[in-house]
Design a protein that fits this description.
The protein has one domain. 80% of the residues lie in helices and 0% in strands. The protein has six helices and no strands.
Length: 154
């Protein structure tokens, strides 16, 4: 369910970013009047797409892995390695959320140059994506515990 929402948000943001970039090209090359707000909006949309895309990658387990190395280990060491990786990712996500919120607090009174939007909206991408990643990591952790418990019973 959450993955579907993430995909929809990503699709919408990429579509808006595409339209904004086309407007930028139109303003710059056809009208010879470059518009600063289009470049700024495209940049901030790209940040959000990158961060939500990273969370979606955690959901689909699409991030880089060492499958060749892990497959050579015994099943018990594979399980230990899997949990160690989950723990490391959890620590990374904690840092992302914690320092993301601190950064939001620091920039909360700044505004963007062209759009005059509060900068905190840009920086909220860090804790929001971190919380999404934490949810996906927890879900995968619970599912892998259930799967390993079934294997141990059989």
């Amino acid at each position: 369910m959450l993955g579907t929402v993430e995909r929809a948000v990503l699709a919408m943001a990429v579509l808006i970013m595409f339209i904004v970039i086309c407007c930028q090209v139109l303003f710059r090359y056809l009208l010879h009047q470059p518009s600063p707000w289009t470049e700024e909006l495209a940049r901030y949309l790209f940040i959000w797409v990158s961060m939500i895309g990273a969370a979606y990658g955690v959901n689909t387990q699409a991030h880089f892995g060492f499958e060749l190395l892990v497959k050579r280990l015994s099943p018990r060491l594979q399980r230990v390695g899997h949990y160690a990786i989950q723990l490391c990712m959890g620590l990374l996500v904690f840092v992302l959320v914690y320092y993301g919120m601190r950064m939001v607090a620091v920039v909360s009174f700044q505004v963007t140059p062209a759009l005059q939007l509060p900068m905190r909206y840009v920086y909220y991408s860090l804790p929001v994506s971190g919380l999404l990643m934490a949810f996906h990591l927890f879900h995968h952790f619970v599912m892998s515990c259930r799967q390993h418990r079934r294997v141990d019973i059989v």
